[in-house]
Amino acid sequence: MWKYILVVICFIGFIIVGFYIFGYEPTNLILNNGEYSFNKDMNLLNQTGKTDPEALVYINGIPAVVDDDGNFYGMVGINNGLNIINVTAKAPFKSITSNIATVKRTETPHHIDVYYQINNTIQKT
Asked: Where is the chain membrane-spanning (predicted)?
């Protein structure tokens, strides 16, 4: 009898670990508008957003700071040309979610143009 109880406990344990690793629904991930998040030279972006509490968030592979409410931020260097910002989030018992923002920076001797895009919505700063 103890053998069957042990088998059931192990089976339940595998299910719990499977849900923790692979999840059953995606982690919530929303990127905030980056329009006002650039420094004065527009070469640094403070990417912010919201996710599930206790989620791990990575911005271009670097861990972001996440508070108890799921708000996160992380600094990203912006170069001339097209910059891809890949944000991933993974909450316990949920699957990984990714979102991509693109920043196109063009610098001329007298002006800097930056186009910031999330989810196919273009914002010019």
From this structure: 5-23
Contacts of 42 (CB under 8 A, 6+ apart): 78, 105, 112, 114, 125
Across the chain, mean pLDDT equals 85
pTM for the model stands at 0.76
Residue 34's φ and ψ, nearest 5 degrees, are -90, 10
Q: How far is CA 25 from CA 19, 56, 65, 88, 116, in A?
A: 10, 15, 23, 15, 29
pLDDT score recorded for residue 22: 65
pLDDT > 90? residue 24: no
Looking at the 3D structure of the chain, how many domains does it have? 1
44-51 and 71-77 strand pairing: antiparallel
Burial 50-73 (b: 16+ CB within 10 A, else e): bbbeebbbbbeeeebebeeebebb
Instruction: For residue 91, give its domain range.
Output: 27-123
* 12 in any annotated domain: no
The per-residue pLDDT for 80 is: 92
